[in-house]
Specification:
alpha+beta; 32% strand; 8 strands
């Protein structure tokens, strides 16, 4: 399993044909990620982007910017973690093309549901796309953090049984256990089979950093 701070490479199958595709994800540093993060901040402030968590809940100090190369296409994802009433893996993610133009954005918010499981709210370009109670038992951020340090292998097994693209991107981002189950539930559709150049960026946007 790759460290989320080092990026990584994974291969996924384009099941719409016999062609295989390689997807590279690399964490960026320096001026480029700062400039794109500034674009997201400006977009939140001027209304270009709508965050349902609210700008005060977005932790821009922990933003991660990944260069995603899939086939002959290159994208950049800017993922901003969400604090406040939302649990870990909640984030706001904006996607940019190779020229720095905004393509789309998404928001994934996890909270505690009434039945004691995680509740998921998903938004695409500011509009709700899904709202449901998952079947994953709710855990606090501290509990999830402790779980991650145990390097459980359960998550990797789950990824493999639900789709290679989920396994691929989640592996690069270095997530497992409860976080892995949440990703599978939220992103299996976005990471479904199709043209790699389309689904991988959408998959990355769903999973976030």
């Amino acid at each position: 399993q790759s460290s989320p701070d080092n990026g990584g490479t994974c291969s996924v199958a384009n099941t719409s044909s016999t062609q295989q595709g390689s997807t590279d994800m690399n964490l960026l540093s320096g001026n480029e990620p700062k400039n794109l993060t500034d674009k997201v901040v400006a977009g939140i402030n001027d209304g270009t982007y709508t965050s349902h968590a609210g700008s005060s809940s977005l932790d821009f100090n922990r933003t991660k910017v990944y260069k995603v190369t899939s086939g002959d296409q290159t994208f950049t994802s800017v993922t901003v973690p969400t604090n406040g009433d939302y649990t870990t893996t909640s984030n706001f993610t904006a996607l940019f093309d190779k020229d720095g133009n905004s393509l789309n954005y998404s928001e994934t918010l996890y909270s505690q549901g009434p039945s004691g499981t995680f509740h998921l709210d998903k938004y695409a370009n500011g509009h709700m796309s899904e709202s449901k109670d998952t079947d994953v038992q709710y855990k606090t951020n501290q509990q999830i953090s402790q779980e991650d340090t145990q390097n459980s292998s359960d998550g990797a097994t789950t990824y493999k049984s639900t789709g290679d693209k989920v396994a691929c991107v989640a592996s690069v981002l270095g997530v497992s256990g409860t976080v892995g189950y949440l990703i599978v539930g939220a992103c299996a559709g976005a990471c479904a089979a199709g043209e790699i150049g389309v689904t991988i960026p959408v998959c990355v946007a769903c999973i976030g950093g």
